[in-house]
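Render this sequence as a predicted structure.
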Amino acid sequence: RVIKNPDRYKFRTYSNSINDLIGKVGKAYTNIDLGGTIDIDGKLYYAVASAPIEQGCFVKVVAINNNKLVVVRN
């Protein structure tokens, strides 16, 4: 059996590491109470905040904790 497009099955690697997101500004895609989703440059990430943030508010990534973005309201 011949695979017509072998590149289709390769894993994609990203040059940006998660640490490159510190300092970036995004938008709360959902409400962030204990945790929620944010949008940075068209990509969705899971984030946590120390205070509730409403959907649609701009947020800034200040740290990374256990592969979760820690954000504050911008």
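Summary. The beta strands are 25-28, 36-40, 43-48, 58-65, 68-73. Residues 9-15 have pLDDT under 50 and may be disordered.
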